[in-house]
Amino acid sequence: MTGARRVVAILGAGGTLGAALSRRFAGEPATDVVVSDLSADALEHTVAGLPDVRGAVETLTADVSDPTQVEAVVARAIDAFGRLDVLISNAGVLAPNGRIHNLSVDDWDRSYRVNVLGNVNGIKAAVGVMRPQGSGSIVLTASVAGMTAWSHAAPYCATKAAVIQLAKVAAVEYARDGIRVNCVCPGTFLSQIHDGLPPEAIDAIAVKHPLGLGSADDLLGAYSYLASDAARWTTGAAIVVDGGYAAP
Ligand SMILES: NC(=O)c1ccc[n+]([C@@H]2O[C@H](COP(=O)([O-])OP(=O)(O)OC[C@H]3O[C@@H](n4cnc5c(N)ncnc54)[C@H](O)[C@@H]3O)[C@@H](O)[C@H]2O)c1
Predict the structure, then answer these.
(1) How high is the pLDDT of residue 198?
(2) Residue to probe by mutation, ligand 1, list 191, 197, 208, 223, most atoms within 8 Å of CB
(3) What's the Cα-to-Cα distance from 88 to each of 57, 211, 221, 227, rounded to whole Å?
(4) What is the residue with the minimal CA distance to atom 15 of ligand 1?
(5) Any idea what the CATH number is for the domain that residue 227 is in?
(6) What end-to-end distance do the CA atoms of the chain give, in Å?
(7) CA proximity to 239, closest of 190, 192, 171, 173
(8) How confident is the prediction for the chain on average, in pLDDT?
(9) Residue 151 lies in a domain
(10) I need a surface site. Which of 47, 170, 201, 221 has the fewest CB within 10 A?
(11) Which residues are catalytic?
C-alpha cells in the first residue's frame, strides 16, 4: 500500500460475519470500503450498522458466482477510490442438511458456485488491479469444516476444503506480484446460515467447541491482521479461529 488511505472491498457483506467485517473495516483509520452482497436488503442492514466515524462507503449488489458482477465490485473501488488494497471474500452457503446419498446435484452445484467459484471470481478480479499496483491482500472465508468432517454437510466441507487449497495456490502464484492470499477458518458462530438446521444439530456442534460457540466479533482480529502490514510475511495461511473446535 502506497497511498495514505487504504481501500477494502468486502464480498458477502450482508450476513452476520459480513456485517461485522464491514463495521470493523469501515471504522479502521484511513480506510474506505466497498461493501457488496447478493441481497440488497442484507446490504442495507449492513450499511445501517456502520459506525458514525468512518471513511467513505460504496455499496453495490453482486452475485459472487457471476464473474462480471464481481469485476463490477472491484471496478467500483477503482472508480471511487483509485485502488484496491484488500479484498475480503466472505460469501458462503450451506447446502441442506443431508447425507451424501440424499443430496442433489443442485445442492452440490450451488455450494460449488458460491463457495468455490465465488472465491475464484474474487481472486481473479482483485489480482487484475493488485498486480499492476504491485501490492494487495486477499482474505477468503473458509471454515473448520474444510479441515474436519461434518456428517450431513459434505458439500460444505468439500467446498470449504477447496477454499483453503485455493488460498494456498493463489498465495504461491501471486507472491511475486506483491499480493498475499490467506484464509480464515472460523468455528461455529450462529448466523442466518444455520436457518433450517434442527436445534439438535446446533447443540451437537456447540458441545464440540471447548470455548463454546463464538460470535462474528470473535473473528475480526484475524481478518484485521491478515489485511494489515503486520501480516506482510504471512501468505498461504489458514488461520483457525474456532474456540478450540479443531484442537482435539
Ligand atoms: N456461521 C458459521 O458458523 C460459520 C462458520 C465457518 C465459516 N462460515 C462462513 O462465514 C461466511 C459468512 O457466513 P455467515 O455465517 O455470516 O452467514 P450469513 O448467511 O449470515 O451470510 C452469508 C452472506 O453471503 C451472502 N451470499 C450468499 N450467496 C451469495 C452470492 N452468490 N453472492 C454474494 N453474496 C452471497 C448472503 O446474502 C449473506 O449475506 C460464509 O462464507 C460461511 O460459510 C460461517
Answers:
(1) 85
(2) 191
(3) 15, 26, 13, 8
(4) 191
(5) 3.40.50.720
(6) 39
(7) 171
(8) 96
(9) yes
(10) 221
(11) 156
170 lines ligand 1 (CB under 6 A): no
219 in a structural domain: yes
* Residue 90 domain boundaries: 6-241
Q: Is residue 248 part of a domain?
A: no
Is a pLDDT exceeding 80 seen at residue 79? yes
Question: For residue 26, how many C-alpha atoms fall within 13 Å in the half-sphere facing its CB?
Answer: 24
pLDDT in tens, 138-181: 999 999 999 999 999 999 999 999 999 999 999 999 999 999 99
Predicted structure pTM score: 0.97
CA of 157 to the centre of ligand 1 (A): 14
- The best mutation among 10, 17, 35, 218 to test binding of ligand 1, ranked by most ligand atoms within 8 Å of the C-beta, falls on 17
> In angstroms, what CA-CA distances link 10 with 13, 87, 100?
6, 6, 32
CA–centroid distance, 188 to ligand 1, in Å, is 12
Cell 438446521 belongs to which residue? 197
Give the total number of structural domains in the chain. Answer: 1
